[in-house]
Amino acid sequence: MRVVVAEDVLFTREGLVRMLEDAGVDVVGQAGDGDELLAQVRIHAPDVAIADIRMPPTHTDEGLVAARRIRADHPAVGVLVLSSYVEPRYAMDLIQEQPERSGYLLKERVVDMASVVDALRRLVDGETVIDPTIVARLVGRRRRTDPLALLTEREKEVLGLIAEGMSNKAIAGRLVITERTIEAHVTQIFQKLALPESSDQHRRVLAVLTFLRK
């Protein structure tokens, strides 16, 4: 797996690169701002671009802007945006436009490199990955018309874990039930949310979007 890493703080970037390389990830390029990130993506065509959400010059949302540009110009390249803050609006801005291969994690997850690598693999597979804390914040909002009203509590629980980027096998392990049972729950979720017939992976992304929207 080939990645480009964008982080303006050199010490932080070098630490992240070292951890990724130790985990077997091939870091093919590094950048200190959004423009440099875009240039590195054009040069190296990585599998995934990892970007801090706040970079020069304003340190607001330059990483998000660059991520959206990458998804538009290089649809085969996944993006993983890292943030120090719980910012659900930014996560939704990213995934609503182009959910496939888009991910948003809190920087605190970096200490668990196995989770980061798993997220990168899911992005390469075309999935959406959202930090569990962001999922909890979004789900906690009240909805006037709840599209999930038809789902059972177990189905909502399964869908929440899908939103975190977990596979059916991983969800089965978390809930201590069989993978076949999870598959049945997923089928029911697709049917109750009236998702159009397509690949199961695409419908998983659509289900996640339904789950996270207001």
Question: Can you describe this structure?
Answer:
By secondary structure, the chain is of the alpha/beta class. The chain folds into two domains: 2-137, Response regulator (Rossmann fold, 3-Layer(aba) Sandwich); 142-212, Arc Repressor Mutant, subunit A, CATH 1.10.10. The protein has helices spanning 10-22, 34-44, 62-73, 88-97, 113-124, 132-139, 153-163, 168-175, 179-192, 200-212, and strands spanning 2-6, 26-31, 48-52, 78-83, 102-106, 129-130. A six-stranded parallel sheet has the order 2-1-3-4-5-6, sandwiched between helices. α1 (10-22) links the parallel β1 and β2 (26-31). The longest helix has 14 residues, at 179-192. It is globular, with a radius of gyration of 17 Å.
Key features of this structure:
alpha/beta, Arc Repressor Mutant, subunit A, 2 domains, 10 helices, 6 strands
CATH architecture of the largest domain: 3-Layer(aba) Sandwich
| SSE pattern, N- to C-terminal | EHEHEHEHEHEHHHHH
Count of individual beta strands: 6
Strand content: 5-15%
Number of domains: 2
Structural class computed from helices and strand pairing = alpha/beta
